[in-house]
Amino acid sequence: MAVKPKVTNENSTVTGFGPAVNEKDAEKLRFMEELTKNADSVQERVLAEILSQNAETEYLTRYKLNGATDRETFKAKLPVVTYEDLQPEIQRIANGDRSPILCSHPISEFLTSSGTSAGERKLMPTIREELDRRQLLYSLLIPVMNLYVPGLDKGKGLYFLFIKSESKTPGGLPARPVLTSYYKSEHFKSRPYDPYNVYTSPNEAILCTDSFQSMYAQMLCGLIQRLDVLRVGAVFASGLLRAIRFLQLHWEQLAEDISNGTLTGQITEQSIREAVIGGLKPDPELARFITKECSKGDWAGIITRIWPNTKYLDVIVTGAMAQYIPTLEYYSGGLPMACTMYASSECYFGLNLRPMCAPADVSYTIMPNMGYFEFIPVDGTNGYNTCNGGAHQLVDLAHVEIGKEYELVITTYAGLCRYRVGDILRVTGFHNAAPQFKFIRRKNVLLSIESDKTDEAELQKAVTNASELIKPYNASVVEYTSHAYTKCIPGHYVIYWELLVKKDPIKNGKSGVIPAEVLDECCLAMEEALNTVYRQSRVADGSIGPLEIRVVRPGTFEELMDYAISRGASINQYKVPRCVNFLPILELLDSRVVSAHFSPGLPKWAPTRSD
Ligand code: AMP
């Protein structure tokens, strides 16, 4: 049962947000006004709905909720949990146990998060009605955008959207990323025509798991309809940059197909061929134009050169994606970047109500009807206030304070109860009574190129794994740090290694010089040890490039420490940063590099889970 706020002022297109372009938008905007004005009472109702819907579940019974649906009892009795705490229950559901363990509604599928646990994607159980809730949030995007960008009904959106391969759990439920689930749903495939939301990409191109064929078809359709394109987007910035890279690599083939009105034999998927061929006719003039623009070797402003009517980029550049802002600015000639939504596999959270603001000013308003939200205050010095006795200190959505940082905790209709998402958010203001949050960071993420998230322990394990290969040379890694290199597309991980190579060869070992091929193999050994999301991005998506080890000369990490101390770090407390982004430090490291090595192959990855 969705929470429906009272709709007022029904016959006017004037809303609290200002005039809407039509009555349909006005209705959506009024809906948001009501939700945000009544954030606290909507939250109270959402919690009561979730707790009564799931009252008989094994989980709520275990904590003796006895049918209570009020906040006090909920907070007093239910612990704040992490994925690892719920893993036994989740595993039982995945293995086919259909009893109401976490949720009274049948689990329809598992959403595979880009967050991992023990190297595997986390599995989030979901229920059918959650699709409606996600759809509801999507339906609010265009009414908000229409407030800021006029005339979106006069053209189309060129969106590079992709699905990923899916697997089945031992119990037979599909396990796939949330966007794959959404694009494959009737909500997306059979969406009603909306002149404000027309895509250049045919569904068939989006719904192909072969990333080359999917991208090729989407790019071709985007080029053919280039003058219709009013916005260019992808979910995350990294996805849009991959599309630009694809154009750089394949424009000749694309121009040839456009010139001849043909479709390359590399597109073997029949449904894509049928969907695309109808729109193709020989257009040598367009082919010449594309050739002229792409053969210059100058890619600055390519987006606006090819799609001159683009008003904005629709792409998330907050959080880990902020590293791509300068590159996107370069390719787009400084077009505005709209970050519209904040969402996860566990729950869709909210929207940016000022989508045309600068990336640094983006705040997301959590919609209080999506789930029940609580916030752990982040203690600036000592990490997080996590003790269970502190569970009642969690702050409710309507009561967070401006300027403070919190870790997000959610309770969802699908059965997650007081679940720590791992995102750290800062309150920047309120829209009515609903707080707005700046995404600060994901907890424990050291390296990220696209959806991959590598933490310190995973990096440590990878270094340990790889350093086995240099042991026969009487060598070891004495210090290391890392950097997500995104100046070229695809980006890749750079790991700086300082080695200690002992002069005396060890028994049965080799002389004290490590051959370059061995260090190349170390790169691959590191990749083998990284989590499944990393390896999938390397192998199936090609969205991360080969890992690089840069060997720095002995003493470099001591210099790093001297530098930190000269800037005020305490010598007693100094720890080697396991990831560096600060330019002077990167420059210092790079000036001490003695050799660079790249992974010579692809790590192992298979679409099925290993458990
Ligand atoms: P997943 O569970 O794989 O869908 O990843 C969800 C996570 O992606 C969130 O918990 C955030 O850490 C991150 N994320 C999603 N939307 C945004 C956004 N708009 N800005 C920054 N990070 C985001």
UniProtKB/TrEMBL annotation:
Domain GH3 middle: 364-442
Any one of the GO CC terms: cytoplasm
Keyword terms: Hydrolase, Ligase
Keyword Endoplasmic reticulum: no
The family this protein is said to belong to: Belongs to the IAA-amido conjugating enzyme family.
InterPro entries the UniProt entry points to: GH3 (IPR004993), GH3_C (IPR055378), GH3_M (IPR055377)
Protein name, as recorded: Glycoside hydrolase family 3 protein
Pfam families, sorted: GH3, GH3_C, GH3_M
One term of GO molecular function: hydrolase activity
Residue stretches making up the GH3 C-terminal domain: 458-582
